[in-house]
Amino acid sequence: MLLLKPNCECCDRDLDGTSPDAMICSFECTFCRDCADNRLAGRCPNCGGGLVARPARSAALLERFPASIERAPLVECPATT
Fold first, then answer.
1. Is the CB of residue 54 less than 8 Å from the CB of residue 24?
2. pTM higher than the cut 0.70
3. Is residue 79 situated within a structural domain?
4. From first to last of its 81 residues, what are the pLDDT tens digits of the chain?
5. Structural domain for 13, as ranges
């Protein structure tokens, strides 16, 4: 089951479990769509893998299987161009 990390690891933007703007790599590194597209060129700075849209969890399932509340540590990201 996906952890659904609550923040972008680049800019620290909040990303709840239903956010359509959350992007992940195969290791579940989590970034907002803006950072993924504009700062990271679609590549995870941790593993080099591609970033894809994170599936959203329905409200009913979030009650039973909540998103993580532990914020992901921030990584060094390139400056916005």
1. yes
2. yes
3. no
4. 999 999 999 999 999 999 999 999 999 999 999 999 999 999 999 999 999 999 999 999 999 999 999 999 999 988 875
5. 1-63
